[in-house]
Amino acid sequence: MVVALLALVPLAACDPYPPARRPGAAEVSVNVDADGSAYTQVFLDETRIRTTDELHAVGEGVGAALLPAADSLDTSVDPNGAGYPFAVVTASHAYRPGPTATVQIDARQAVAWLLAHGNTSVDLHIRLPVDDYESSLEPASVDKGSPFWSSITDASRAPVGTVVLTPNPWLSLAAAGSAGACVAALVLALVALLRRRRPPRRAVWFAVAALVCSIVLLPLAVRAADDVGVSGALHGAALHATATAAPWSLMLFALSIAVLAVAGSRRARPSAVAND
Fold it and tell me: 18-165: which CATH architecture?
């Protein structure tokens, strides 16, 4: 089952992004990354396919003042596979990582530009790298869990303010502890398997412990990497290396299942060896 799920990952990644859901609408997605950068995607409706020049103009119009703290902007066009192409604005240094990282947002000019260029309404979604934050954006988001504003038809009603990110340093410690416990349990289970033709019962329990630790590790691995980046504890290559924690946790999960299956099957075999 794990192999089948992993095989679906590249297929899901190839699915194109959908266009804006309503005719005449534009959907703006601001994605804040853990390393201090951010990228904005601008999806237009499906009434027609825009040219590359048109989408570059959209990116420049939307990205000009959306993230006031960004010191450089790069506009590009994502061909989006079999879907509708869309504009992407990449901003470096959109905020300064730290214990209380502050992201400045001002969507008024971006919304005004979109409304002035043929769009009748704008949806805005801000995706943050951590779950804990304090928002001073006005007007307030309709969704407290993930900042979102729907059907903005007046630029004066576009959000402006700050979002203060509060990373949780304990997540990285919990992830490291879960990973260490998982590896230790796997080693003990493998040692028990190799020592006897019919492994002792403790081999099964060690494998079960490794499986439980790997299940705990899976969500922690993703969140811990983002929290470490937002906190400013790691930068550059070291931060990017933590992004591999999620694939490694999946590998530990699959390995735990395999060891448990082998230990269980060998325990179930009839044997003349006395049970421990």
Answer: Sandwich (2.60)
